[in-house]
Design a protein that fits this description.
The complex is a heterodimer of chains A (245) and B (319). Chain A is α/β, with parallel strands linked by helices and 245 residues long. Chain A has a single domain, classed as Rossmann fold (3-Layer(aba) Sandwich). Chain A has a 6-stranded mixed sheet with strand order 3-2-1-4-5-6, sandwiched between helices. In chain A, helix 1 runs parallel beside helix 6. Chain B has 319 residues and is of the alpha+beta class. Helices cover 44% and strands 19% of the residues of chain B. Chain B is built from 10 helices and 11 strands. In chain B, the strands form 3 sheets. Chain B has a 6-stranded antiparallel sheet. In chain B, strand 3 and strand 4 form a beta hairpin. In chain B, helix 3 packs antiparallel against helix 4, helix 4 packs antiparallel against helix 5 and helix 6 runs antiparallel to helix 8. The relative contact order of chain B is 0.08. Classes of the chains: A alpha/beta (245), B alpha+beta (319).
């Protein structure tokens, strides 16, 4: 079994997009390219407005990922949990596809008798521990998100703590939107050390527009760029989607 | 509860008493009596079955159920240990009300009291005794290559007579060397900035120290800038904790490689044998007292010996 790489976009936002393409369409595009999109909606008061809530769920569903709406305070626990859960979900999908190939029929782990599931689960666990992971974090800095940025930063350090405890390698990259000049701005390129974020984070300024769709589009292409660079130096790694196992 | 579909979450957390859960594969029936608790990934209920009262865990995710069952199966192989509840069944239930399959597993129902309420009721002297028991259980678990992970008072039950601790909720139980599967911030050394989330025995021992601190400071507190200093100050400010300062700080710093080492030093600290750094007030006076008394015994011994020798000498002279 060859180990592939899991690719995830983690979108942290507090509301609705109001500029550019439909973010749900962009999430669907990501999914088609083997990138899972997870969304964390950060609450200001007790409720998120209906429209914002629907968008958060819509993006995650279209992106094949998980969404969760939380208060800023719970952000650390949530960010790491959503990421881990989404990994397991994706890997389970991969293992289910493998099962289908072996057993021919349309079978998934849930169709196996309980006694047989244990071994399948151990494979999923093992993969979750050892697989390489690339997470692109996309942070909404518009409007009221500004006050929550210190909490977001803390949650990201916590995420790297959880992921770096795994045996597999991790790469992180961080984008914010809106950027100073453009819709979206890269503040951290692919690195195994999310801690490098410290120095860039305090300098962020918040803008008025919320271009979630364009930000997602750029995030997807950032994965592509990395891949084409890799194929240039001849160590291209295939997606799980492309029968890498 | 964690990341879950809201309708399903609502259903799982609020199964009414009397609901009958029937397994699709093994055809066993379980009648819900009352809820026992909500975990991060599901809910646990007390239920009636043919074999008597049982605890049943339902979840939205087959993954969660399967992983936990895997751990419980391993636990059952560890003989004579009060590790987890024993596993009785695992199955799927077709819930007609929401038209979904709900995976579940059934385990032994342990009737007991949670760690903190037991101590509150029976007295603080139980804290260290229960902790010693906990350390023995952890030692066994670690020997088998596991780390409990989500160790917190809610997951430690005190049951039976004599009161004995049992570990519940194996959702966080992780193979050593891997990333801890599930944890609670307050008891997590990563949250306190005092170590990684890689599963090693010291990870659990940190949580044990936090349980002891929390037992003496019932109101939950949050981490400040320097976690270690904050905890150290709190330990020093509490009479009970101060007694175990040396052991607690070693657990917090991750200096114990084995639960047994921590247990040994904790026992020693109970008997004031451990040389402690830092402040020495009332305990040191007691030590002094003991020394004085043993000095008197020594003197008496010497006097008696001398008297005996003198008596022998006189006896010899008379003969």
């Amino acid at each position: 079994m060859r180990k592939g790489t899991l690719r995830q976009i983690l979108l942290i936002t507090d509301g609705c997009s109001n500029h550019g393409e439909d973010p749900i369409a962009m999430a669907a595009l990501a999914k088609e390219q083997g990138i899972t999109v997870n969304v964390i909606g950060v609450l200001d008061q007790d409720v998120m407005d209906e429209h914002g809530l629907r968008e958060v769920e819509g993006i995650a569903t279209a992106g094949g990922g998980i969404s969760q709406v939380v208060y800023a305070k719970q952000l650390s626990q949530t960010v790491q949990m959503v990421t881990r859960k989404a990994m397991t979900q994706t890997l389970q999908g991969v293992v289910n596809r493998e099962l289908k190939q072996i057993l021919g029929s349309n079978i998934s782990m849930e169709d196996l008798p309980p006694e047989k599931r244990g071994e399948v689960m151990e494979i999923v666990d093992e993969l979750g521990e050892t697989v390489e992971l690339e997470v692109l974090i996309l942070i909404d800095t518009s409007g009221s998100m500004k006050t929550k940025l210190p909490t977001v930063k803390e949650a990201l350090f916590d995420l790297s703590l959880s992921l770096n405890a795994r045996m597999g390698d991790n790469l992180f990259s961080v984008f914010v939107f809106p950027g100073k000049q453009e819709d979206v701005e890269k503040i951290l390129d692919w690195t195994p050390k999310l801690e490098a974020l410290s120095s860039v984070f305090p300098k962020l300024t918040s803008g008025g527009l919320t271009p979630t769709g364009p930000a997602l589009r750029q995030a997807i292409s950032h994965f592509q760029k990395k891949r084409s660079l890799r194929s240039l130096i001849g160590r291209d790694e295939s997606y799980f989607e492309e029968s890498s196992m | 509860m964690g990341v879950m579909n809201p309708i399903l979450k609502n259903r799982l957390c609020k199964l009414p008493a009397g609901t009958v859960i029937v397994g699709k594969w093994h055809k066993q029936a379980y009648k819900i009596v009352k809820p026992l608790g909500n975990g991060a990934n599901g809910a646990v209920y007390l239920a009636e079955s043919k074999k008597g009262l049982v605890a049943i865990k339902v979840s939205d995710s087959s993954t969660t159920i399967t992983s936990e069952v895997n751990v419980l199966k391993r636990f059952s192989k560890v003989q004579g240990a009060a590790l987890g509840p024993s596993l009785l069944d695992m199955d799927d239930w077709w819930d007609q009300k929401i038209n979904r399959t709900i995976p579940f597993y059934v385990m032994e129902y342990i009737k007991g009291e949670d760690f903190f309420s037991f101590i509150r009721k029976r007295g603080k002297e139980w804290l260290v005794i229960l902790v010693l028991q906990l350390l023995s259980a952890l030692e066994q678990l670690h020997e088998e290559g596991w780390v409990f992970g989500d160790l917190k008072p809610e997951n430690v039950l005190v049951a039976g007579n004599p009161p004995t601790i049992r570990l519940l909720d194996v959702g966080g139980t992780t193979l050593q060397g891997r990333a801890v599967k599930e944890f609670t911030e307050f008891y997590d050394r990563g949250y306190w900035g005092l170590g990684s989330r890689k599963a090693d025995p010291a990870y659990d021992l940190f949580a044990v120290a936090m349980m002891m601190i929390h037992a003496c400071y019932p109101t939950k507190f949050e981490r400040k800038e320097n976690g270690r200093k904050q905890l150290f100050t709190m330990i020093q400010a509490d009479a009970t904790l101060r007694k175990y300062e040396h052991v607690l700080m070693k657990a917090i710093d991750g200096s114990y490689v084995r639960a047994m080492d921590m247990k040994r030093e904790l026992v020693a600290a109970i008997h004031h044998d451990v040389p402690r750094a830092g402040i020495k007030q009332s305990p040191s006076r007691k030590q002094h007292h003991k020394k004085k008394r043993s000095g008197m015994i020594e003197t008496a011994f010497i006097v008696v010996t001398l008297l005996c020798m003198y008596a022998l000498y006189l006896y010899g002279q008379i003969l």
